[in-house]
């Protein structure tokens, strides 16, 4: 039996935040974290994000609050939603392996729990300081062509697998889209 689930995410997705908080409580499954640029994925798939539809946006805010409350996850809708997550997602790729989990926790919490505007460079610098990540090295790295290409490639690969949103889980080449499909992905792991 395999205990492996691919987890495609972008920090900009409130549902990815909720899914990530659920994942942190699961110990017997290996989650392979696959960062993507959700805006890029939407462009490839020709999708208009819910953030740009006032009816969907209102429902999404209410829905996230309900789901978070039901799952005992501290959640606050970010007043600066949506932002461009490009720097943050590239940053995940360039931070050292032993800092990736803390990086994700800090940035997810800052955006979806503490209402921090992550489009402001000084706010990113503040988080990097708390994480003891050298800010000069960080900002140089996110502009490195290899890091840029890596995020583009991961996003393209997601699109080629017919992923169209975040979070998405893949088990046994089957797609499970949305935080509410995590349980189905876990069931699929048991059936392998």
At CATH's second level, what is the architecture? 3-Layer(aba) Sandwich
Largest sheet, spatial ordering of strands: 2-1-3-4
Helix content: 40-55%
Question: Care to count the β-strands?
Answer: 4
Major sheet description: 4 strands, mixed
H/E element order: EHEHHHHHHHEEH
Instruction: Give me the number of helical elements.
Output: 9
- For this structure, the CATH topology is Glutaredoxin
Alpha-beta content class: alpha+beta
Tell me the fraction of residues in β-strands, as a range. 5-15%
Radius of gyration: 16 Å
CATH superfamily: Glutaredoxin
* Mean pLDDT score: 94
Describe this structure in words.
This protein is an alpha+beta fold. It has a single domain (4-191), classed as Glutaredoxin (3-Layer(aba) Sandwich). The protein is built from 9 helices and 4 strands, in the order E-H-E-H-H-H-H-H-H-H-E-E-H. It has helices spanning 14-23, 38-45, 54-70, 86-94, 100-112, 121-131, 135-141, 145-160, 182-191; strands at residues 4-9, 30-35, 168-171, 174-177. The chain has a 4-stranded mixed sheet, sandwiched between helices. Strand 1 (4-9), helix 1 and strand 2 (30-35) form a beta-alpha-beta unit. Helix 2 crosses helix 8, helix 4 crosses helix 8 (145-160) and helix 5 packs across helix 6 (121-131). The termini are close together.
């Amino acid at each position: 039996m395999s205990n492996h689930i691919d987890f495609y995410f972008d920090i900009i997705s409130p549902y990815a935040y909720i899914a990530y908080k659920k994942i942190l409580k699961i110990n017997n499954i290996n989650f392979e974290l696959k960062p993507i640029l959700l805006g890029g994925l939407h462009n490839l798939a020709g999708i208009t994000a819910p953030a740009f539809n006032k009816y969907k946006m209102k429902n999404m805010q209410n829905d996230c609050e309900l789901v978070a409350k039901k799952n005992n996850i501290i959640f606050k809708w970010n007043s600066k939603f949506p932002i461009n997550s490009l720097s943050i997602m590239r940053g995940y790729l360039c931070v050292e392996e032993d800092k990736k989990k803390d990086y994700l926790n800090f940035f997810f919490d800052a955006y979806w729990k503490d209402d921090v505007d992550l489009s402001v460079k000084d706010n990113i610098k503040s988080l990097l300081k708390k994480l003891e990540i050298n800010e000069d090295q960080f900002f140089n790295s996110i502009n490195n062509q290899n890091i840029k290409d890596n995020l583009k490639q991961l996003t393209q690969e997601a699109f080629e697998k017919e992923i169209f949103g975040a979070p998405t889980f893949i088990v046994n080449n089957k797609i499970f889209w949305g935080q509410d499909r995590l349980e189905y992905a876990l069931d699929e792991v048991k059936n392998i």
